[in-house]
Structures are given as C-alpha cells and as structure tokens.
Design a protein that fits this description.
The chain is 47% helix and 5% strand. The protein is mainly alpha-helical and 717 residues long. A hairpin with an 8-residue loop joins strand 7 and strand 8.
C-alpha cells in the first residue's frame, strides 16, 4: 500500500530530487533528465528521530521497486545469524541482502547478476573451512545461497562444492609460505568458477587483479582478499571495502556493454541509519572511488540521524525545500564533498491539516487540533501522523464532547498500526520510536529536572538503586546526546515533545489516580531542593513545582507581593516561567479543562477555602489583586500548555486582566499594556510567549527567559 508522506514533495514530485538522481519519475516511471549525469552525489537525508527519514527511504523503495533495481538496508538492523562463521561481519552480512534485493525482476530488463561479489563473499566465507568440519562450510555456503543464485539459478548449485573444495585442498601440495586461509580461498574460488560460472562469467574473477599485491592476477587477488580479511584490523577493512566495490562493479556491468539501452534510469541503493559504522563502511568506498574519477551511475540515498556527523564534514548542505527543483551540488576537493546532505524540515500547518483531513475527511475534529498537534510534536512527521490517526479514530468512534479532543487526550488514545499487531497507545508508541531500547522509567524521572544539577539531585534521591552521586544522570545525558536529543540548562530533557511524553509517562505509569504517588514524590523532591535552605534554592523554580503539584496559593501570593517591584519585565518573566508547569490531563477525562473556569472567573462562590486562594487577612484592594492574579495565572497556565488548545475566550480574558493590571502598576503600565497586545498575538500564532513582549528573550526564569522552549507550530516548526 502506498504511503502518503506530507511535506516531502521536494523528493517525490515528478521533477523532484529522486527523479533527477534516478532519471525516472516515481509516478509513471517516465524518463527525466539527470541533474548530475556523469557524477551523481550521494544524497544523505539528515534529521532527528521522528523526522521521517526511514519513511522516505521506504517510500522510495515502494515507488521504484518495479521500474529499476532497488535495495534497502537498515544499517542498525544488520545482526549476525545464530551461528556466524569467521567470515561474517556486518559488511558481509549487508552485501548479500543488498544484492538479493537488487536482483529482483523489474520492467523490461533482465535480473542483475553479481558474479564479482559472489566470488569475494565465497572467498572470505571459506577462511575457516577444514576437512574435519564440513558442516561449517555447508552452513556458510547455504547462507550465501541467495547471492550465489544471482549467478546460477540452480537451487542446489552449492551442494557438492564443499566436498570438492576440501578434496582439492587435501590433494594440493602444502606450501608453508602461503596462509591456510589463502589456500582454502583459492581452492574454493577455482571450484566455484568451474562448477557454476559460465565461460563468460569466469572472466569476472579478473576484476580482483586490481587488489593490492595481486599483480593483475584475479585469483591471487581473491586469495589475498581472504588473507587480509582473516588478519583483521585495517587489512580486513581494506578487504571489506573491496567487497563493497565488487557490488558496485556488478551493477556497473549490468548497465554497460551489450546491456546498455536495455535498462532505464539508475539502480537505487537505500541505506538507512548510515551514520553508523556499517553505514560508513558501505558509503565511503563509493565516495572514494568517485572522488578518484571512477564513475558508477548508481543513485545512492542514505539517512543520518546526526546532522553534524564527521562523515558529513565537507558535504554540500541544503534544506529540503531548496532541492525541489535543483540541488546546485558541486563536487569539491574533499572526498566527503561527494555528499549532498539534505536536512528534512519539520511539517508546516498545511501539512498537519492535510494529515488530519486524511483521517477525518468530513472535518469533525476541532478546528485547531491539527495546529495543536503540530505545536506539541514540533512538526515531526511521526508525531503528527500518529496524533492524526488517533483523532480520526476518535471521531469515528463517536462524537466527542466539546473540549475532549485536545493533544493531551490524543496521547492516551490507542491506534491500530498494522493488522497483525495489537492496537498501541499513542504515547507509548511515540516513546518507543523516539527512544528505542532506553530505560524509560529512569528517563521519566529525570525529565522533571530543569538542568543537570537538579537531574543529579533527582537521580540521587529517587533512583538510589541506579545512581552513585547522581552519575546515572550523566549517563542519561550522554545517551540523549548520542541519540541526537538536546540537553539544556533550562530543561534537562530539552526537546518539548520528548519531555512532554516522558512527563506524561511519569504521571500515569503507576495507575495511581488521583494520588499519582510517583509523580508527587519526584516533584516534592524538587520543590524541597528549590525551597530556602535546600540544595539549590530558587523562588521561581520552587513556585513552578508548587504549580506542578496543583498548589496555586503561593504562586499567586508571590506574584501579588512582587507586583509593584520596579522591573515589571522580570515579573512577567516569573509569571510565564511559573505558568509553564506541566498539567497532565487525567486519562479518559472528557470534560472542559478545570483551569478554564478559574481563568474566566467562573469558580463557584466559596468553592475553595481562603487557605487555598490566599485571601485570608488581606485588605479589600489586596483581595481584588489576588483574585485578578489568580485568574491571570490560570489563563497563562492553560494557554501555554502544549497538551491543550488555545481558547479564544480565555485569550481575551488574559488580555483584559493584563490591561487592568497596567492601570494598577506605578511604573510598568506600558510594558503590561504591550503584553496585553503581544501575548494574544503569540498564542494565536502558536508561538511561545515573547519576553519582553514582542521582542527577543533576554534572560532565564524570573528575568524574562523563555521558560518554555516550545516550538511554535508554524511553517518552520
């Protein structure tokens, strides 16, 4: 089934990057002029987890697999078989898989054969064969069956080889100066050539005459290849590089000579997670050969999670929209200048809406839900797609109550991704895809931290069995960085989506409604640390934690007591930072957000005791200001929440409260009046609240620092 990838038109349109590098349109397979006819670049798609790199490569395979030879290998998923022989490495494991896929039948062209690669793989597989262990040899040859079948389609071609190889080896004169691995490889290659290769195919062995110390003799080259492979280290790397080039040479041969004109376009190699060691081993030999002037006419697309990987040090860099009609790539003097690094950009509002419309074609979801999902996910295609599917399935199941469908509610929905797999919860699936194989219980605790110091404090206090002086926090920091996730001073887990997912898990992992014991214990630990006399005292951070725990009195009282201070910009910064506290939605809750009634001044009279509102002992004007700031705090808290949706009535009420406060402030009335204008604009534009209003941020918590770090959900989100 064809996938619908939104926001990737620059690659998949009929004049897009894929068409110009392959010479064929993805839809209809019409011929397209090559952008780089004689010297194509290796196109490397860059972007973090969830940005859709794997989805793009899979879609390329889907679109081209019937019109030109194409192969896709995930360089992180090549694992050894149950009983690998000495000839198995990730490279020798990946090459047969690539060759097998490339030999699949395509329109109007014979299957590609891989005689050179077959000979090289057989030579290295044979390095440990002995007469005493024929089973090992049989098993190794059986594993190479698919690639050998590209040369000889007889299913039992390799059945009698082992006996003949070992008999030939035993009958030969033993030369103590020749390594045993080389003797076995030579005997094996001779047998394979005699038994399987046609008279024309046998000349393929001559290609190995260019191997170091072969002197132009292909059989000596194959023997030396096996010896180098067995010796390991740099020599093995040299042998593996030559095997990669053997696959390239077989592809070049299939597109040259008598076959020229019988094939259209270029063959396509797709290498997912090419930033890994294996990925570099598969790409770099091709880059070096091309840099030396040897051209191969293969369309290579790869992906890299690390945008600043050293393997991309001299790449020509473009953002995805910039390659829609031309890449403007030019080779430089460095080997890695042969790479065109294309940064996948986040989805924009139109892409997100298209994803939601696909699952909800009649438009039953709230008008702002697509933009809300975009804001929460930062425009990651993975997140947008899962939330869109969850929303679509929710409206199919029944008409949701007003306010029930918000991004936070979608995280708890289950979606069916495949028919052969049980439905999964959106939040769980996102975490599994964004942080595969990680200790989520540890990460969930540390996601509550603001910086490295508070992360180490949490590790020491809440992860005693795993931490020595908070060192587990440093280990997690290194893991996050290695996975391409930012770690910042304002939030230990700096990516807003990842932090929201981890905090969501922390809140609900123990299924302890309404007490949330684990959540409460973690945030009480931080509140104590930020309190006077704690390990890292900070008033804004302590009040932030109070709000996380649902306690608003001290927050409002602090804002009232500091309201008449001279620096009203710092006061607004404190308000914004305190109100950035997470407020997870209870699972299955379908009613309006409780913060809304408070923000709009619609709390039931006397519903809260004076001890909760902080009104006890206050004069009339102080009571009025306390209630006004209570409404404002809840409005900013709700409107800043990426798990909620902007509410026009609350936005207007927030602006009204700020203007009222402007008239009460002795010196900062202009700044507050401007905030009443700029903050609603920020919210309606899905931007973080700007500090000072309408200009760049200039400080940390309580001094105008961002306190949020949330993507804006706009065109560049």
């Amino acid at each position: 089934m064809e996938r619908e990838l939104h926001g990737r038109e620059a690659i998949f349109e009929n004049g897009g990057l894929a068409a110009r590098l392959t010479g064929l349109t993805p839809y209809g397979s019409a011929k397209v002029p090559y952008e780089h006819r004689d010297d194509p670049p290796v196109a490397v798609l860059t972007g973090g987890r969830g940005m859709g790199k794997s989805a793009v490569l899979k879609q390329l395979r889907h679109l081209y697999r019937e019109i030109t030879p194409v192969a896709l290998v995930d360089c992180e998923a090549v694992v050894p078989p149950a009983d690998p022989g000495p000839g198995w490495t990730p490279v020798t494991g990946a090459l047969p898989e690539l060759a097998t896929q490339l030999t699949a039948k395509v329109r109007a062209a014979r299957p590609v054969q891989f005689p050179r690669l077959s000979l090289g793989l057989v030579a290295v597989a044979s390095i440990s064969w002995t007469r005493e262990d024929e089973t090992r040899a049989q098993r190794d040859l059986q594993s190479l069956g698919p690639v050998l079948a590209t040369v000889d389609t007889r299913g039992d071609a390799a059945t009698g080889w082992v006996t003949k190889v070992l008999t030939k080896l035993a009958a030969g004169a033993f030369d103590s100066m020749v390594p045993l691995a080389g003797m076995v490889a030579e005997a094996t290659v001779e047998t394979v050539l005699e038994e399987t290769f046609s008279r024309f195919q046998r000349r393929s062995a001559d290609w190995y005459g260019s191997y170091p110390h072969a002197g132009g003799n292909g059989r000596i080259g194959l023997r030396q290849l096996a010896v180098d492979f067995e010796r390991g280290g740099d020599l093995r790397r040299r042998a593996e590089d030559h095997l990669v080039l053997a696959l390239v040479a077989d592809l070049v041969r299939a597109y040259g000579g008598l076959a020229r004109g019988a094939r259209r376009g270029r063959p396509v190699l797709l290498l997912d997670n090419a930033h890994t060691v294996l990925g570099r081993q598969l790409v770099e030999p091709v880059l070096r050969q091309r840099a030396s002037g040897v051209r191969d006419q293969i369309a290579v697309f790869a992906s890299s999670r690390a945008r600043d990987h050293e393997g991309l040090s001299h790449a020509v860099r473009r953002r995805l929209p910039e390659v829609a009609h031309g890449s403007h790539w030019v080779r430089g003097s460095e080997v890695t200048s042969g790479i065109l690094a294309v940064e996948l950009t986040a989805l924009g509002p139109a892409h997100a809406q298209a994803a939601f419309d696909r699952h909800d074609p009649v438009g039953r979801t709230p008008a702002g839900l697509a933009r809300g999902a975009l804001r929460l996910t930062g425009g990651r295609p993975l997140g947008v797609a899962l939330l869109a599917q969850a929303a679509g399935e929710a409206v199919v199941a029944g008409t949701p109550q007003p306010g029930a469908l918000v991004p936070g509610a979608l995280l708890d929905r289950t979606v069916e991704l495949r028919e052969d797999r049980a439905p999964v919860r959106v939040a769980d699936e996102l975490l599994a895809r964004l942080l595969p194989g990680q200790q989520l219980d540890v990460l969930s605790v540390l996601a509550a931290a603001h910086g490295e110091d508070s992360a180490r404090l949490l590790a020491t206090a809440r992860l005693r069995g795993r931490s020595l002086d908070g060192d587990v926090a440093l280990q997690v920091r290194d893991v996050l960085r290695a996975q391409g996730w930012p770690v910042g001073p304002e939030y230990f887990v700096a990516d807003p989506l990842l932090r929201s997912l981890l905090l969501h898990r922390l809140r609900f992992q123990d299924d302890d409604h309404p007490y949330y014991a684990v959540w409460r214990a973690v945030h009480e630990t931080l509140r104590t640390a930020y309190a006077p006399g704690g390990r890292c005292p900070s008033v804004p951070h302590r009040l932030h934690q109070e709000l996380v725990l649902g306690r608003t009195r001290d927050c409002v009282t602090h804002l009232r007591e500091r309201f008449t201070d001279g620096d009203v910009t710092a006061w607004l910064g404190s308000l914004r930072f305190i109100a950035s506290a997470p407020c997870p939605r209870p699972p299955g809750y379908a009613g309006p957000d409780p913060r809304r009634a408070v923000a709009l001044g619609r709390e039931a009279a006397g519903s809260l005791p004076d001890g909760e509102t902080g009104l006890a002992g206050l004069g009339e004007r102080a009571v009025e200001l306390q209630l006004q700031l209570r409404r404002l705090l809840h409005a900013v808290w709700l409107l800043s929440d990426p798990l909620a949706l902007p509410d026009e009535e609350v936005i207007d009420k927030m602006a009204h409260e700020l203007r009222q406060l402007s008239g009460r402030h002795p010196t900062g009335n202009s700044v507050l009046w401007d905030a009443a204008t700029h903050w609603p604009q920020d919210i309606r534009a899905w931007r973080p609240l700007s500090m000072p209003p309408g200009s760049s941020d200039r400080g940390g918590p309580g001094t105008g620092g961002s306190g949020q770090g949330q993507g804006n959900g706009g065109s560049d989100a």
